[in-house]
Amino acid sequence: MSYRVVFAPEAEAQLVALYRYIRQEASADIAERFTTAIINHCEALETFPHRGTPRDDIRPGLRTVSFRRRVTIAYAVVTDQVSILGIYYAGQEIAVDWADEDQQR
Predict the structure, then answer these.
(1) Is residue 105 a part of any domain in this protein?
(2) Which domain holds residue 15?
(3) How many domains, the chain?
(4) How many other C-beta atoms can be found within 10 angstroms of the C-beta atom of residue 33?
(5) pLDDT tens by residue, 4-15
């Protein structure tokens, strides 16, 4: 079974912010290669999406997978779709984002 991978607006915004940060600190070429590699890593979840670590302690159905030990990708698998919910770079706290969301409900 093949799953469809989609990026939530928040994840897209995080990728753009990461690109801009790396572009500023290194170069546009390095930023492009790194963020493209993250996208490719996310899209590879279409073949085996349950390989990530379940994080039901943060949010039911949430899973995470690492990329190059610097990025944590948060996602959920629903039916035939993998929703990329967040891209966290260099120790950004994933639980804080989800705790804030729960408090707003």
Answers:
(1) no
(2) 4-100
(3) 1
(4) 12
(5) 999 999 999 999
Question: Rounded distance, CA 12 to CA 25, Å?
Answer: 20
Query: What is each CA distance from 86 to 8, 30, 45, 82, in whole angstroms?
Result: 8, 21, 14, 12
**Which residues have CB under 8 Å from 31's CB, separation 6+?**
18, 19, 20, 21, 22, 23
d(CA 14, CA 103): 21
Q: What is the pLDDT of residues 7-46, one digit of tens each?
A: 999 999 999 999 999 999 999 999 999 999 999 999 999 9
| CA dist., res. 74 & res. 36, Å (int) | 17
List 86's β-bridge partners, or say none: 74
Residue 68 forms part of a structural domain? yes
Residue 23 falls inside a structural domain: yes
Question: Could you tell me the two tokens for 77?
Answer: 């698998």
Cα three-residue angle 70-73-79, rounded to 5 degrees: 160
